[in-house]
Amino acid sequence: MSDGHCRIDRAFIRVEDGLIHLRRVDGRADARPLVLLHASPGSSRGLEALMTALAATPGAPPLIAPDMPGNGDSDAFAPDSPDIGWYAAALIALLDAMRLDQIDLYGTHTGARVACEVAAAHPDRICRLIFDGIADYPDDMRDLLLRNYAPEMTPDDHGTQFVWAFHFVRDQALHFPHFLRDPDHRLLSRAVPSAPELHASVVEVLKGLTSYHKAYRAAFAYRAADRMRAIHAPAMLLSAENELPTLRAANAGFAAALNDGRVEVVGREILPKATAIARFLDWSA
Known about the structure:
By secondary structure, the protein is α/β, with parallel strands linked by helices. It is 38% helix and 17% strand. It is built from 10 helices and 8 strands. The protein has an 8-stranded mixed beta sheet with strand order 1-2-4-3-5-6-7-8, sandwiched between helices. α2 crosses α3 and α4 (139-148) runs antiparallel to α7 (212-221). The protein is globular and about 55 Å long.
C-alpha cells in the first residue's frame, strides 16, 4: 500500500521463460485495463505515485504495472543483447498469460520505447497509447550513450557496487547524460531526490545489478521514428515542464508522424499528468 487512499497489490505471473512481477490496482470491472511501463533503471515502484493518482480518478479501470525482465523483482531471462522488440514480445507474453486481449498502454522513457514497439508490432492489442518521454538521439550521441551510460556491473569483494549504484542514481538528477558533468549538461529543472527516494531507487538498481543495462541499451539503440508511422492507435505525448529538453523537443515531430497523435503539456506534479491521462482515455464515458 503506497498511502492511505490506494491499495496497490503485488503479484507474480509466470510466462514461459520465468516470473514477471507486477503492481496492480483494482478498478472498474467492465473497463479496459491500463498497463503502465516504467523507466530504466528502476521498476514499477517508480509508478506508484501515478497509479495512486490515476486510481483516484472517477471511472478508473484496472491498473497493471509490470517490472521488465531483469528489473525490479522480475526474473532476469533476457538474452545477452535484447532489443526493444524482445521486451515488446515479453509484454505480449505477459498479456497472454493474464488473458488480456486489448489494453490501453502508458510508457515512460524506456517504457515509452517498449510501448511504441508493442503498438507498432501488435496493433490489434493496443487501443490508446500514452508516451511520457521519448526521443531519438543523433548517431554520435546514441553511440556515446551506448558506450557509457549503462555499464555492466557485478558484485565484488569490496562492495563497490553499492557506492556505484548510489552515485549512478543521484547523478542522473544532476546531469544528462549523467557521465558528462559540465555546465552544458547540468539539469536545472529537476530536484535531487530526497534521501528516502534515493535509497529506494538505489535498492531497485541493486536488485537488477547484473541485468539493468540490457533494457537501457535496447532503449538507446531503438529508433522510434522508424516505427511511429506503423502505429494506428490514438496516441498522446505528454510534455511535462520538468522533462528533459531533448524529450520535450521531440514531441511535435513524433505527433506529426503518428496517424493520430497529439501533444499534451502538463505541469511538474503527478496530478495534472493523471488528469490528462484520464481525460485522454475518457474514463468518464
